[in-house]
Amino acid sequence: MRVSQPRVAPLPAEKWDATAKELMGRFEGEPFNIFKTMANHSELMKRWMVFANHILGKSTLPVRERELVILRIGYLCRSGYEWGQHVLIARRAKITDDEIRRIKVGPDAKGWSEPDRLLLKATDELHSDAHVGDATWNGLAKHYNTQQLMDIVFTIGQYNLVSMALNSFGVQADPGLPGFDI
Q1: By the 8 A CB rule, do 123 and 73 touch?
Q2: Fewest 10 Å CB contacts: which of 69, 79, 176, 182?
Q3: What is the pLDDT of residue 1?
Q4: What angle is formed at CA 59 by the lines to CA 72 and CA 166, rounded to 5 degrees?
Q5: How far is Cα 35 from Cα 49, in angstroms, rounded to an integer?
């Protein structure tokens, strides 16, 4: 984590307003720290979750591709929380620990398929320049349709935003999250 203590403390259940209670009721078990932190601004949380749910569950991207770009942007943003949560999701999606380690190296690491390399390159370009260059875009367009290309950009943007919030709010790791040392 970028800071050792929360700047915006996770809100305990007894302080949740009606909106936060309704949103938290959708989760199984104890809500993650990101959601308990967002409960401090439940109306923002409500609206953000609509978009976040599209990206995480309704996107046209296959899970593997989605997780490659999420891990890469989380790593580039140095968001330990985002990285750890999505390492767990990536493993469930059969992304190997070797691949997860190579995500930290980026698109130039040996062993990537052309589509995987292009996804990582697009992530790097959006992170550094807020623009996917022509060569990368044209390469991606050989493998992905228009909706998928749009979902690639919005997935990277969503997790860039989330990484900024997590880092700035000081959201601390939930128990059992892996770190960057994988």
Answers
A1: yes
A2: 176
A3: 82
A4: 45
A5: 10
- Tokens for 72? 């890469």
State which residues of the chain have pLDDT below 50: none
Residue 140 structural domain: 61-169
Q: What is the CA radius of gyration of the chain?
A: 17
Q: pLDDT by residue (tens digit) across 92-106?
A: 999 999 999 999 999
Concatenated DSSP letters for 48-64? HHHHHHIIIII-SS-HH
106 and 135, same structural domain?
A: yes
Count CB neighbours of 115 within 10 A.
16
Domains contained in the chain, number: 2
Tokens 């330990």 identify what position?
A: 80
Q: Which residue, chain included where needed, has tokens 């040996």? A: 110
